[in-house]
Amino acid sequence: MASPYSKELLLDMYRKMYLIRRFEERAGQQYTLGKIAGFCHLYIGQEAVAVGPVEALRPDDYMLSAYRDHGQPLARGSDAGMVMAELMGRGTGYSKGKGGSMHIFDIEHHFYGGYGIVGGQIPLAAGMAFASRYRNEDRVTVCYFGDAAASQGALHETFNMASKWKLPVIYICENNRYGMGTAISRIAAVPEIYKRASAYDMRGEPVDGMDVLAMYEAVKDAAEYCRAGKGPVLLEANTYRFRGHSMADPATYRTKHEVEEERKGDPIPKLRAYIKKQGLAQDDVFETIEEEVNALVDQAVKFADESPEPSLDELWRDTIVEEGEEDVRPRERVLGQKVTWPKYPSGQELKVTWDLEPREQAEAADKKAGLIR
Amino acid sequence: MPELMYREALNQALAEEMERDANVYLIGEEVGRYNGAFKVSQGLLDKFGSARIIDAPIAELGFTGLSVGAAMVGLRPVVEMMTWNFAILAMDQIVNNAAKLRHMSGGQLRCPIVFRGPGGAGGRLSSQHSQALEANYAHFPGLKVIAPATPADAKGMLKAAIRDENPVLMFEGERLYAIKGHVPEGEHVVPLGKADVKREGTDVTIITWSRMYYFCMQAAEELAKEGISVEVLDLRTLRPLDEEAILASVRKTNRAVIVEEGWGLAGVGASVVDIIQSKAFDDLDAPVERVTGLDVNMSYAANLENATQPDAPKIIAAVKKVLYREGA
């Protein structure tokens, strides 16, 4: 049977997954060389969870993530050199070296950040989706979080509001089975995270997170559902990280056997085999892609390594917005490239037509319930 | 100028700013159909509808974080905390997200949001409902913290807070809502970060904010009868502190008393003392005195509650102490 996917799309997915893999391997190497410090949470093994959704979304859909946040911006088109520079704490990084590995922000590509408090970004995503409804835009927001965050109160408080107010937000739980060193099965009363959606009358489903096409389909479908105003969706991407929680974690809580077994499900060779089986490309095409990506990542490391540290007067910037101050556009600042920046409607342009709880409806419901007002 | 209650002044500010800018919305517990737990949002649901006056579930962390997210993409939320005591549950979103977004994004993001609600002691509400918590938040870079005492300042500062591009936390005295004062109509905006000399004097400066302001004015009136001329400086904004105004007043009177409803340890007043001693030490004729809440949790019993808080007699004693007068 012929593939329903174009060669172009499939090879683009391959390229992006390979880019993330290679980038992360080099990041790990730079960490051991002492050039990257702090926590450095690698994405190796989970590439399909970022790439499938990115391909299924519009470039202007909002996205945000947790602290394992290098993969999504790379998939969305962020500059690899500037991401690497951020990891190395250089002034040419996306956040001028103020955020580091856990806080990649690339607003030009509508990537609204990585966050370091488990589950803390979950309400933010609902708020971004709320803004889309408020302004009557058909944008969706995609929010990544890990399996451990599913036990945070923030998730439950947010799911309740997102479902009640039908917010266009897709939550993607990256269930890699370990919250740091603790297996999800040890601390969760219900380890199948997608089931938690049902408590809030919200759509929830499991997805094979090691299969980029499964992720692509699930998010395409979920985005349509969201854009139709039907409310939020929770997708549980069952995935696995091949490395430790962060570079500081030797991951001794897992058996070698388990990791070896899981590595057999590596999403990158899986896609490659699929493309070859479909007869859309052969090894030479992949080799060319890999060579290009390798060169790109080498260049990224070199760019970061040769970049200066931020100047000390940066300490006093970006804490409080001064009157009339413009927002910083990283690619423009670092590479001198003109970028388009999100423009939000002013108070005069904006007409709020949405009713969260239409008065007549609410009053009719009250009357029916016998409430006296 | 019409006389308004503090809560009416806030209501006016909200209504005017919401009319001016459709990006402004109000969210919180009971703000809509109940018309506000303290009636600050009275009538706003009818005027602006349920998309802009939003009854939230009792989930402070959730609706606070949601609004921070909305502010990240251009809305200008006003988040009402039914009291600041409950905002403790939302502290992660205020401190770890709102305060740090601009910094962590290297200047790419801004977070124009107002968190507001009553703070300070209630009437016999015991420990969990009677706390002046502004010092906690004044600690964090990336936030602005304001605590107006009068209805006119309440209106003007709320308007300024809504227009500010940064997260602003507004502490309203729970027991100030029914206080009346003259409030300018229409475009009355009080700039953040500016203290106000509410009473001119020459012998001693009392530095204070929010509800304590009224005790200080009472003390100043009493002291005037004894021929002591007190200057009352209302800080109004606790972050950033108006150093210039503090130093100018202390250099004029050479003596200072700081009155703070919250606990003394690591309080805002401690930072005011630091400013004075490091920059105006040579102008001082006496050590700076502080009158603060006692270093205990709040009791329910009326006499214990009263004894816990600063009041006019305690302030008078402190003023006399810095003047080396009797009884000190």
Key words describing this protein structure:
heterodimer, A: six-stranded parallel β-sheet, two-stranded antiparallel ribbon, 8 strands, 10% strand, B: 328 residues, alpha/beta, seven-stranded mixed β-sheet, five-stranded mixed β-sheet, oxidoreductase (chain B), oxidoreductase activity (chain B), Pyruvate dehydrogenase (chain B)
Q: What does the secondary structure layout of this molecule look like, with pairings?
A:
The complex is a heterodimer of chains A (373) and B (328).
Chain A: H1 7-32, H2 47-56, E1 62-65, H3 71-76, H4 80-87, E2 111-114, H5 122-134, E3 141-146, H6 153-164, E4 169-175, E5 178-179, E6 182-183, H7 184-187, E7 203-208, H8 212-227, E8 233-238, H9 256-263, H10 267-277, H11 283-306, H12 330-335, H13 359-368
Parallel strand pairs in A: 1-2, 1-3, 3-4, 4-8, 7-8
Antiparallel strand pairs in A: 5-6
Chain B: E1 3-5, H1 6-20, E2 24-28, H2 44-48, E3 53-55, H3 60-72, E4 76-80, H4 84-87, H5 91-98, H6 101-104, E5 114-119, H7 126-129, H8 134-138, E6 144-146, H9 151-163, E7 168-173, E8 180-182, E9 196-199, E10 204-208, H10 212-225, E11 230-234, E12 237-239, H11 243-253, E13 256-263, H12 268-279, E14 289-293, H13 302-308, H14 312-322
Parallel strand pairs in B: 2-3, 2-4, 4-5, 5-7, 6-7, 10-11, 10-13, 13-14
Antiparallel strand pairs in B: 1-8, 6-12, 9-11
Helix pairs in contact in B: 1-9, 3-5, 10-14, 11-12
Structure description:
The complex is a heterodimer of chains A (373) and B (328). By secondary structure, chain A is of the alpha/beta class. Chain A contains 13 helices and eight strands. Chain A has helices spanning 7-32, 47-56, 71-76, 80-87, 122-134, 153-164, 184-187, 212-227, 256-263, 267-277, 283-306, 330-335, 359-368; strands at residues 62-65, 111-114, 141-146, 169-175, 178-179, 182-183, 203-208, 233-238. In chain A, the strands form two sheets. In chain A, strands 2-1-3-4-8-7 form a six-stranded parallel beta sheet, sandwiched between helices. In chain A, helix 1 runs antiparallel to helix 10. The N and C termini of chain A lie far apart (63 Å). The relative contact order of chain A is 0.16. The mean pLDDT of chain B is 97. The N and C termini of chain B lie far apart (42 Å). In chain B, helix 1 (6-20) packs parallel to helix 9 (151-163), helix 3 packs parallel to helix 5 and helix 11 (243-253) crosses helix 12. Chain B is of the alpha/beta class. Helices cover 38% and strands 20% of the residues of chain B. Chain B is globular, with a radius of gyration of 20 Å. The interface between A and B is large, with 65 and 51 residues. Chain B: GO terms for molecular function: oxidoreductase activity. Chain B: InterPro entries: THDP-binding (IPR029061), Transketo_C/PFOR_II (IPR009014), Transketolase-like_Pyr-bd (IPR005475), Transketolase_C (IPR033248). Chain B: This is Pyruvate dehydrogenase.
